[in-house]
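Teaching assistant here, posting this on the class forum so everyone can see the example we discussed in section. The complex has two components, and the goal was to see what a joint structure prediction looks like when all of them are supplied at once.
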Amino acid sequence: MLLIAGADHEVGQSLGRLLQDVEARFGAELLSDLPCVNELVGHVERYRGKMLRPTLVLLSSMAVSGRTDLGDLRESAVVTATVCEMVHMATLVHDDILDGAAMRRRGATVNQLRGNETAVMLGDYLISHAYHLCSSLGRADISRAIARATNTVCEGELLQLSHREDWSLDERTYYEVIRRKTASLVGLCCELPTLLSHEPGARNGDGRVGEALFTFGEKLGIAFQIIDDLLDLSGDEGTVGKSLGRDLAKGKLTLPVIRYLDQADGDSAEAMLALLREGAAGGEQHPADDTVYARVCDALASSGALEQARGQAEELVAEARTLLSDTLPDSPARATLLAMAEQVVVRRY
Amino acid sequence: MLLIAGADHEVGQSLGRLLQDVEARFGAELLSDLPCVNELVGHVERYRGKMLRPTLVLLSSMAVSGRTDLGDLRESAVVTATVCEMVHMATLVHDDILDGAAMRRRGATVNQLRGNETAVMLGDYLISHAYHLCSSLGRADISRAIARATNTVCEGELLQLSHREDWSLDERTYYEVIRRKTASLVGLCCELPTLLSHEPGARNGDGRVGEALFTFGEKLGIAFQIIDDLLDLSGDEGTVGKSLGRDLAKGKLTLPVIRYLDQADGDSAEAMLALLREGAAGGEQHPADDTVYARVCDALASSGALEQARGQAEELVAEARTLLSDTLPDSPARATLLAMAEQVVVRRY
């Protein structure tokens, strides 16, 4: 789980217990009568990392209910937190196919170990069980909200794929991609507790709170993805725990590169484009040698483009924090959410 | 759509109109604000073939409601018929990755045209929208039934994958694979109308009818898959409209091969195993030359194994028909379902 520096002790204790419940639900939902399925699921469970999404559902539920034990929201919050983690896990498994990545959280990926085909089906198994678990709440409106978010996630991925090796990708489209593929689900995680605390179809008296929580999560999600993309360019593979330089190999332009190309003089821009083309020429199967990667990273660092991208993420987090402070009354849960938001931009993995 | 010889005129007319509604819902649900997504969806819509699953939902709804216009069941039957077709479409898109198939319904597959990665995401987009559309019914119990079926479909696919190049695959496991990966959804298609005609959670007075309809569909689905597997071995590529011999290239044993290996003398079995190994050696990327495929097919045909497998499918269809006749009162819709069942085993594509 994400260690939250400065979390309130009671909030931290309760969060730890609730996340254990999430893990137990996760395992129980995926249990099959087929040993071959359980073996694969066991492998995926080792992917479990920051638990960002369930943590957001749970903290937001504490903030909305005003109770660290979540009160009446407990059951539905734990279930939806598990659902969001399962959806996220599915996208990781399928993303590894997309990115041809060989390493994830310091372990070999499913596609590496067992082939693309097993990874596709295992991801489908996770998605299917996410919807299955969600429907156990008996709330079709919640199932619909989850499915709407996954529709958007897929659109973001498809939009990104359609811009592979698009060397003139603009910043607006980059933001549109990450808003859909990452931020839509993170936003929903934060909004879910307000949906859960109302009867389906009832006039939502807290519409303003729900909207603000969604936007808080959305901004956080965008910032999170900017940092993720930064780490792919400038992180330390051992610390990050997954293959780096994949965006380069895949011809995916991310914020620092877009900024660099926007601001560089003609010759520097041409030189960068040549490196990008070389970096992507072999695709994921035959990545360019490390010097191409190093030269791209050096140019981005010395131009200040990396820091500009980090600055954008910091700005988004600051906006998210202000929005949350303006919307929710002060509470230990709110303080923990604010602290968590800050850590999104300082993380090194 | 599946042309049903001997369908009652009024049933046929109503079915045609309802299937048009299904197609319209299908398109409306998948419409995106992103042109790149709509272009991909347009490609998938050309996959649409037999419409077996929506046809079963609609005919079963007619039989259960006793009305060719479906009465109160109309809206929910059209929605769930669309959902089932969308789930099926998603499995086709993902199956093409599984099988490395280059041709489907006389057109290039998505993975062939746009790469595995786009095919994975497009399949995910279809699955997500299927659950999204389903939840519009406001019936969490129906969402759960659909998700339970897709859980089972994925298990079947994973079980099959775990038995790739398992040259001692037994008949029991083969049936378990196709029961899960194909028959579970077909069974649900037939059962859905009885679930829809009852309030969620209400004591189901027609439990016996629902169960019988599920079993009818399950037997039909198993027979359908046996024939599908037979066509992969002995069909005509131009007529079937998709790449053949893929099971061989993938090391997937199907019923005729299992029967042959069970019954052949030691030398013939060894010769067959050698051919199977040779056929699978290059995998999907480098299929063995056509003579290997031809020699396998010849051996299966002359041993009677192909006919035995067809006989199994015919037996299952006969059982399904008897069950339906014993359960539902006579009606034009029932007669059409019975006629449809018969066509599953005589189809050549």
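For the discussion questions: Chain A touches chain B through 47 residues (CB under 8 Å). Chain A is about 75% helix and 0% strand. Think about how each of these relates to the inputs above.
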